[in-house]
Amino acid sequence: MNLLRTYLADFVSLLFPELCMACEDSLVAGEYILCSHCRFNLPFTNFHQQPDNIVARQFWGKINIEFAYALYYFQKGGKVQHLMHNFKYNGMRQIGNLLGNMAGGQLLGNPAFKTIDVIIPVPLHKSRMRERGYNQSTCFAQGLAEKLHAVVDDKNLIRTVATKTQTHKSRFARFENMQQVFEVKNPGLLEGKHILLVDDIVTTGSTLEACGIELLKIPGVTLSIATIAYAE
């Protein structure tokens, strides 16, 4: 019976092959979401080994953070962009969990991340949440939490204003666009915590900065940041 199931699964995979979400090559037995080549050869930043990395420098002189990190470099037209498109717009939320596990595996080796108490994803506005059906940052947070043995809180930090796209805005315009957009509903639950704030992609850091400003108003909070990708 098991042999028959194997033959049937192989036959179905010939007709409807599962594809790598980054390069679209067919996956082989034992591969999941990413082919082996992409899993090991996408452009890792190795920022977990660099306290003064590019992402961290985005926040110098703006908000006080312990550490900042991104798993991949994002290049327009590259495999990471294709992976992120599948994640955000094609309903492939399991991509976030996988990438969170991968990022968490790297961060386990950094002492700064051993004290994380709670992981907070950058929230979507409720209108965008209804449209998309899920928050990609929450999926990433859940994967991270499995590795870092922390809890995910995706209810406390909320987005009160539905902002327009940031894509073509300057850094200052992006920051202006994010002012008074976020609110912490129950600050007392986060007092004295080391919070890991997470998002999918960081460019100028304006969204994360706006979230961080609100979180750092809470007594005793320590803040670190992690994202899936860094885009210049």
UniProtKB/TrEMBL annotation:
Regions crossing the membrane: none
Pfam family, one: Pribosyltran
InterPro entries, A to Z: ComF/GntX_DNA_util-trans (IPR051910), PRTase-like (IPR029057), PRTase_dom (IPR000836)
Signal peptide coordinates: none
Positions of the Phosphoribosyltransferase domain: 140-227
Family: Belongs to the ComF/GntX family.
Protein name listed in UniProt: ComF family protein
Organism: Mucilaginibacter oryzae
